Amino acid sequence: MTKTADGKMGDGKTGEAPTMNDVARRAGVSAMTVSRALKEGSHVSKATRERITQAINELGYVLDQSAGSLSSRRTGFVAAIIPSINNSNFSDTARGITDALEGTGLQLLLGYTNYSVEREEELIEAMLRRRPEGIILTGGAHTPRGRRMLEQAGIPVIETWDTPADPIDKVVGFSNGAAMELLVETLAAKGYERFGYIGGTTARDTRGSQRRGGFVRALERLGLPSDRVISFGVPPISMEQGAQAVVSMLERWPDTQVALCVSDLSAFGALMECQRRGMKVPDDIAIAGFGDYEIAACCHPRMTTINVDCYGIGRQAALKLTQTIQGMATEEPERITQTDFRVVEREST
Amino acid sequence: MTKTADGKMGDGKTGEAPTMNDVARRAGVSAMTVSRALKEGSHVSKATRERITQAINELGYVLDQSAGSLSSRRTGFVAAIIPSINNSNFSDTARGITDALEGTGLQLLLGYTNYSVEREEELIEAMLRRRPEGIILTGGAHTPRGRRMLEQAGIPVIETWDTPADPIDKVVGFSNGAAMELLVETLAAKGYERFGYIGGTTARDTRGSQRRGGFVRALERLGLPSDRVISFGVPPISMEQGAQAVVSMLERWPDTQVALCVSDLSAFGALMECQRRGMKVPDDIAIAGFGDYEIAACCHPRMTTINVDCYGIGRQAALKLTQTIQGMATEEPERITQTDFRVVEREST
DNA sequence: CCTATTGATGATAGCGATAACATCACAGGT
DNA sequence: ACCTGTGATGTTATCGCTATCATCAATAGG
């Protein structure tokens, strides 16, 4: 309950929210001056600024940015679309984006697709309606219409988490296939020969498919059998599904020496299930994941996995975006940025 | 590369994005009719609608919603502020919100505070600048200015994940203290007597503090010692910190029978650390968490915890919001909604 | 056949801010 | 004293859309 002496009621439930004009009138200046006072680096005298600040506080005024952006033709939005908000790899990327946007005056508009390109298309349109100044996507697989909208939007587009063959604009990512190949090679060098793979069904999860592709390629190159592939559950596959999948795998190919999983989550599920069945990891079976989630470093035994710079992907994507937006001053940033990945060998292999 | 015959270039890189007037001209109607054609439930003849749709496709037009909302005084935004986007409990809530918003034409504007009320205040202001039609917060602890802004915003405010003593407007949550009390009682009934608690330092994480409060209260009521409290690390505490904390606990109070943790994540870290040290859970020490994360159901041994309806909190909050926004038609929804929680007894206790 | 109702469309006037230009006062340099 | 530059402020004209009212035709009811 604020108490005010003026005509309007002061309990915060004023019929209409105050506008910049209300502030201007109260401070005895023009609206333009208020606008200036609210923007850094504008010339407003100290005394005036104080009167305006006071008026703003008295009225409880909050700038209306949608009105402002219509006029200034800058919305201050950056859109980002990730497959899932619940997957800590992608939420790390979202964090990286937000953090890199901090202080730029740009705000993140976040959406998630549930790994569906159709949903992605809807989201692209919904975001584009808000006129973001740039857009960050996960992966390079889009519907034709989605892609067309992106191309025509006239804003920088950054595809991440992948290295599309035919990128729309800019890219910050890595080859999921190559990463998995590296993991296979590393483990093969340790003497493992009978590899199994656990992943989700079908191609909805493009990164998952690419990892499986890398698995097969690497084994073929090494002359090892590459057919022990379990596809289980709709991506993203859960811990529980990882547990079930490893059971299937052990039934079909009981002599499997090492199970590679599409992500640490399914790998963890598999690991726990093996322990539940009294198997020793890595002695009876080795297990490795992908993503280097928190859990991989903490579980027992600690999990071998591929570390991916999720946060860095987000940061770099946002950086590239802001450079391009404010850009022109400095050089245009590189179109393609390859991010690092590395095998983290731990106790599970 | 679209090919067009008109003056403008057709490769999607037209200097200026087309506006509704461009569409109108091309379709031979007024802008108003285009606007109607883009809105469901407006009277536009089939033939006209088709011509407009075609013009839109040819031009690659996308509605500018910021302009629209200025005019219609409805932004179509709902703001939500959560402590962390990386915590699956809260991202579940965010999912619940998004899902409940689906089809309402409302879009989520998501921000996270990193458990800082100062950051929350900044976020509240940033979001309010976008004129959301409602706002969903986590917890009932805000800065005075943050609270004032919320009260004056003139939009429905929903506080979640908690039951504030003095709510701003509406609430969807549960008592974190009561939930922890229930857990203590349940375990005490099984015969445990020497309880320890692992949580983060200080009050930044209000829900964490309340859980600890419930722990102490319940034990006092039962006449059991309530001083075995380890505060370790800045909230939210990680798996790794949980592991370290349980070590401290065992050093100080080696005969602790059961360790309750502020969340499943720290509980999991503790569980793994105990196994690493060759302790049997629950025989040598029992462990329980809070939140019923995916990991609790999947680890070995499976973890006893408190299940909280994270997704439902989000869903119900968003539902309450949309009801209030479109509202008036039906009854105003209840101000306070208590959500369920329950003890899930598993193998770790 | 006349009025009432509904559907389809257009014209006009903002929504609340800011860009761009216009003033005016004043400080310095000469 | 004169010119110039700059800081402080105001005025005007949009930004791209939609609310609202107005118009006119077609349909329905009696």
Label the structural class of chain A: alpha/beta
Main beta sheet of chain A? 6 strands, parallel
Largest interface: A-B, 57 and 56 residues
Summarize model confidence as the mean pLDDT of chain A.
92
In N-to-C order, the SSE pattern of chain A is HHHHEHEHEHEEHEHEHEHEHEHEE
Oligomer: homodimer
What amount of the residues of chain A lies in strands? Answer: 5-15%
Report the end-to-end length of chain A measured between terminal Cα atoms. 64 Å
Low-pLDDT runs of 5+ residues of chain A are 1-14
Q: Give me the side-by-side strand order of the main sheet of chain A.
A: 2-1-3-4-5-11
Please tell me how large the radius of gyration of chain A is. Answer: 26 Å
Number of helical elements of chain A: 13
Strand and helix map with partners:
Two copies of one chain form a homodimer.
Chain A: H1 20-27, H2 31-37, H3 46-59, H4 65-72, E1 77-82, H5 88-101, E2 107-112, H6 117-128, E3 135-138, H7 144-152, E4 157-160, E5 170-173, H8 176-189, E6 195-199, H9 206-222, E7 229-231, H10 239-252, E8 258-261, H11 264-276, E9 286-288, H12 294-298, E10 305-308, H13 310-326, E11 336-338, E12 341-344
Parallel strand pairs in A: 1-2, 1-3, 3-4, 4-5, 5-11, 6-7, 6-8, 8-9
Antiparallel strand pairs in A: 10-12
The first copy, chain A, binds a DNA duplex (30 and 30 nucleotides) through residues 19-21, 29-33, 35-36, 39, 43-45, 48, 63-73.
Highlighted features:
homodimer; 349 residues; alpha/beta; 6-stranded parallel beta sheet; 4-stranded parallel beta sheet; 12 strands; 14% strand; DNA-binding
